[in-house]
Request: fold
Amino acid sequence: MLTKRQGNAQARSSGENPRLGRTSPNGRHSPVIPYPSWLNSGDNTWQLVAATLVGLMSIPGIAILYGGLVQRKWVVNTMLMAFTAFAIVLVAWVLYEFQMSFGTPLHLGPGILHSAVGEPKSILSPKSEIGQANIPLVSGAGLMPAFRFPESSLAYFQFVFAAITPLLFLGSVLGRMSFKAWMLFVLIWSGVVYSVNAFLLWGGGWWAQLGAIDYSGGYVIHLAAGTSGFVAAAVIGPRLARDRAKAVPNNLPMVATGAGLLWLGWNGFNGGDEYFGGQNASAAVINTNLCTAVALLTWLLLDMFLSKQRKPAFLGAVNGMIVGLVAITPAAGFVSGVGAILIGVIASAIVWASWTYFSRVSFMKKVDDALGVFHTHGVAGLVGGLLVGLFADPAMAIYYNKDGSAVSVAGLFNGHPKQLALQAGAAATIIVWDGLMTFVILKVLGLFMNLRLPDEVLEVGDVAIHDEEGYPSEEGLIAVGAGSSTSASTSAPTPSPVAERSAEPAAEP
Reply:
């Protein structure tokens, strides 16, 4: 019997490749290379690392951030809704959504309808997974350098952006939305709404052709999340009055962990969107962190000197952090460090005022946006997208022409006032489309199912919905274990002592 080493030696002497189990056409070994000439291992590695960082922002990042902010009776429901949405979007993404967002345009009519969304196709074939990445209306049209990694890297990188968007506006509907309705809503919203957002601005669609810009998702993701979350909260209705009145986070260390994952994960969020491991990616990362730090400090100072309490608050710092991350997202690689600082100060001050004062307006008080997504993502994304129309710096090279000249963008303060108008137009489109379609999708789903859980279920929370608790007592563990091992079930599980405690409802920062 031949040993493995002897067998490999015999295979080599006979011209057989011991790894692949086949011979080259001439019976000899041909030179073997690890990947085609168009692939750059550094760019590919960075794209996959950046995608993983963004994925970690969702799971576990948002899952534990939101899980720490809600009432303890909603911890399991919150985390499971986040994980489930992430999974749903991935399956839909490879089946049809990626091509709807970044593929060949589906010509539906004149004007914006000519380039509003791509043709729905799957990316499951070998060619789709290992072939060179391409966005037909962008890289395929010579508007950027050819991709130096495979389609699967681009698809996964863009997937984590698609997945995080519904997770963000989950914060608007926590504590009352039906789990089944959530699953269907995410599936439909992701294809009908998000794909259009992405194609219009990133896939070479109508607004991109006019010159509107969104570096990494201030509009496509955050303005969309704020708009859809607010509309969804209005349609579904509020939490229980008792829960809404006593909104106290259940676990601040858990919030801190989730917030930290968001901050550092954003290095991949903005650093990966240049698609190359070049100088602009580095600039986007430092600008992201600079703007975030400034926004956090600005919010803290406003809390200390202008709020009713006149005290620095950890949840206020988290709010400021999120605002900075969101506001720099549409601008990260388009502005200088000075622009990043200005965006941090301006956006944080505006969103702080929105959170503190605008939320008291009567019609705003009627809508139960549980974690304030409208402010920290919707308003912050809108402000950041408009500010890039002011501060975009032509000296910030994104790519280079063969003659060495820079490919860049200029804003109003650098001699291009039209950019601000383009940013405003793109924002209006996202707000109208996302708000309208969110309303329509939920109203249609409401014809076939209840969007909001019954009050008796809302009183109990996780135990009634999932037969699990985030912080079970020994009695709760025994009850859950017994319930899962028997076929009989009760229609209304008795809450454990943890679930019976006074409401410690979800309070957003």
